[in-house]
Amino acid sequence: HIAVDPYKKNPRVTYEMLSIGKRFHKYGGYDDYQMDSTFMSDPDFNPNHEEYVEWGRQFEDTRQDVVINLETNTIDYYYNKFWYCNRYSEPIPEFAWELEDGEEDVIGYRCRKARVKWRGREWTAWYSDIPVDAGPWKFRRLPGLILKMEDATGQHKIEAIGTKDDVYPMGYVDSLYSRRTREFAQKAEKDYCENFGKIIADSGMLLEPAEELERLRRSKKRRFYAPIEIVGAE
């Protein structure tokens, strides 16, 4: 997934993974899968806190996951950054796809073209003949598995680079996350990223002189922010 922050203009590449199960689909960081696989393959792996933090540095820090429940037709979204641990639920969205002429090969699969306008962005998708209703993020409702997507602004390009067969458990401790509405969670993420310096300075977690905290507040320090869904868009 190549994303571009429109303010910083810098691209960020993250490796993400779509997991397809009988009752659930999950889309999130490949780092989660790598870390879970380590614990599953080595039952004696039991690092202390410092060892865990150091070990975790080798993995990407994606920290946002979409879990689709096929039995209830709902989506659970989990976001974990700093002290922002939010989750929300919503019905699986509908997508007004327009099927278009055009074909492209993606990891050896012949894919067809479709477009959709959804939550503030216009997307082009390439879907295969694999008979699975799924795709990146929350996208679905095409005749086959979606293997590639791009938005019209060029801020997002998501493309499959491979597949694998595996079995691994999937779950979250819901009590660790504050249940929010989608609107609240998205606004909180936006505020956290766009006003990071002020939020950190006002958090009470930094033992710095008052002038340093004031400098941080005025620094307009930001975190990378390129949301797939535009805040306030439907």
Which tags fit this structure?
234 residues, 2 domains, seven-stranded antiparallel beta sheet, six-stranded mixed beta sheet, 13 strands, globular
Give the topology, please.
Layout: E1 2-4, E2 11-13, E3 16-20, E4 24-29, H1 30-41, H2 49-56, E5 64-69, E6 74-81, E7 84-91, E8 98-106, E9 109-118, E10 121-127, E11 146-151, E12 156-159, E13 178-179, H3 182-194, H4 196-201, H5 210-218
Parallel strand pairs: 7-13
Antiparallel strand pairs: 1-2, 1-12, 3-4, 4-5, 5-6, 6-7, 8-9, 9-10, 10-11, 11-12
Description:
The chain folds into 2 domains: about 1-90 and about 165-180, no CATH class; about 100-160, no CATH class. The protein has 5 helices and 13 strands. The chain has helices at about 30-40, 50-55, 180-195, 195-200, 210-220, and strands at about 1-5, 10-15, 15-20, 25-30, 65-70, 75-80, 85-90, 100-105, 110-120, 120-125, 145-150, 155-160, 180. It has a 7-stranded antiparallel beta sheet, with no helix packed on it. A hairpin with a 3-residue loop joins strand 3 and strand 4 (about 25-30). The two termini are about 25 Å apart.
Biggest beta sheet attributes: 7 strands, antiparallel
Q: What percent of residues are in strands?
A: 25-35%
Count every beta strand, where a strand is a DSSP E run of 2 or more residues.
13
Shape: globular
The whole-angstrom Rg is 19 Å
Structural class: alpha+beta
Helicity level: 10-25%
Distance between the termini: 23 Å
**How many structural units, i.e. domains?**
2
* Oligomer category: single chain
* Poorly predicted runs: none
Spatial ordering of strands, largest sheet: 2-1-12-11-10-9-8
- What is the H-and-E element order? EEEEHHEEEEEEEEEHHH
Q: How many individual helices?
A: 5
